[in-house]
Amino acid sequence: MCLASFGGSARIATELATELSHRGHTVHLFTRTPPFDNERYRNRRLILHTVSSSRETDQHPAKLDNDWPADVQRRYLSQILDCIVTNGLDVLHFHYALPFAFVAAQIKDHLGWAAPLLVGTLHGTDVSNYGRNPLVAPRLARALRRLDGLTTVSHSHAQLAADYFHLPARPHIIPNFIDLSKFQPAANGKTNGHAAIRRPRIAHVSNFRPVKDTPSVADIFVRLRQHVDAELWLIGEGPDMPQVQAALREAGVEQHVRYWGLQQDVGHILAQTDLLLMTSRAESFCLAALEAMACGVPVLSTRVGGLPEVVLDGVTGALFPVGDHDLAARLGADILANPFQLQAMRLAALRRAAHFSSRQVVPRYEAYYRSLLKTHRSFPVAVTAARL
Ligand code: GMT
Known about the structure:
about 400 residues, Rossmann fold, about 45% helix, elongated, disordered C terminus, binds ligand GMT
């Protein structure tokens, strides 16, 4: 179960489903509407179930579509129950807690001990926002405690979840992962070759939501240009984009900015850049940072949440405290102005990203399922239904 909107949790869920199907598992993917590049998510072992065949909401695709009307949630639940009865699923795994932790609890209510193994993965604002929301957090905490297994993507996020939801134990940590065949350095192999003959390029990738604090990207870029004649490539779309555009226009630097809009394949764009700039106020992991590093691009980012577990400060990039834009601009300018340091960081970033390859991480999900299944009392639902 996962969201269908642009975003990290949907990316990880759909990639995991695809990888597991390639590893011989049969995977049913349940989304409200088709995921973006949904043609990829169909093969003999990967079956896509959607409540609606087209985007029925008028929401911006960058907005997380996690607040579902009751009738949509009902139809979604009944589709999953049908699938469980017909196919006898072993594991039901959701990515992002809302609304799926509640769906999982309803499945347990309906099927009791005949329910499949129920596993959840917490991804970001499901903890950092909803965990602080007194109207949602207690209900969500109750639903999370009913699961058989709970994972999250970094140590920092595991601690945050345990604190906010008063969990008996910290969630199991399985980091995000990346398909290294889709995120690679530029084809000529000379990762620093282009930068020597053109202006340095700074990239920012996000859904331009307030948590990403994208107006700070504009501010840091303006300050950094006082030291280095750099370009800014903005990849993505979202609610704060007009504010970012206005700030860049007012500062008189718009001619140095390229707007890419929403992109399905960001790897080939990132590979043509020299530094990723992230200004998030909270980040459980920051998949964009991993994607950049896999393309041999160092990362300049705020020191928040799980980012220090992904970006090694001074090695694969540099970290700065939220709000210290002068420091960020100086750190960025230093990296871009020193070709030897830039090249060393590029190589370190590539090495670091290899630790998070799907080949290394996906088996950890399989191992986790297997360890939980050993003690899970599971009975074929068809047999259970006949007995009842
Ligand atoms: O929680 C969110 O804001 C959304 C979530 C998503 O679905 O896009 O993003 C989170 O999940 C990604 C994949 O695990 C992480 O890389 C992001 O750091 C995380 N975003 C935040 O924590 C803000």
